[in-house]
Specification:
175 residues, 0% strand
């Protein structure tokens, strides 16, 4: 079975916004039920923002409602034509010329969504940019007016797993 993108963040959103059983959420997110219970209790995945699987095209509201009515139903992830995530190799990554122009928009998206959780150095590593560029976008002094945010995963600059790892690293350090 295909796993949802950012399974912990998806589980958090499903716990907070639906009346699905822990078993249904655990099966959908490919996680252990005890981990789901820990998330609900606030012991696991502290500081991670929930990720709406409807917005990312992984689920439909109808599918959630159907499973809420029948606790024996399993959530089915929607099939999409997106390619599988690329695995990151060691060393510097090459960013094609067509993607380089998307970096400021991806940086703005990360600042907008995870500005408090991610350090500038982590954003720089995820996107492949510099701290000074990130600081300029954060302060609004970047050479172009950046008012549009683009998800770096959808653009192809990093994967959800990379973002999740960076967020997990910060939550471990903050404990």
């Amino acid at each position: 079975m295909k796993r949802p993108l950012m399974p912990k963040a998806t589980a958090i959103w499903l716990i907070e916004n639906t009346s699905l059983s822990f078993k249904q959420i655990a099966d959908f997110c490919n996680m252990h039920i005890l981990e789901i219970e820990g998330i609900a209790d606030g012991d696991v995945a502290v500081g991670i923002k929930g990720h709406n699987p409807i917005d990312s095209g992984q689920l439909t509201q109808e599918e959630i409602e159907k499973c809420q009515k029948n606790p024996k139903e399993k959530l089915q992830i929607l099939q999409n034509d997106l390619p599988d995530h690329k695995t990151k190799t060691k060393g510097k990554r090459y960013t094609s010329i067509s993607l380089r122009q998307e970096k400021p928009y991806a940086i703005f998206w990360l600042i907008k969504n995870y500005g408090d959780e991610l350090k500038d150095s982590q954003i720089a590593k995820l996107i492949g940019s510099t701290k000074s560029t990130i600081n300029a976008i954060r302060e609004g002094t970047y050479r172009e007016a950046i008012n549009e945010a683009k998800n770096p995963v959808e653009v192809g600059l990093c994967s959800y797993e990379d973002i999740q790892r960076a967020l997990d690293k910060n939550t471990k350090k903050n404990k």
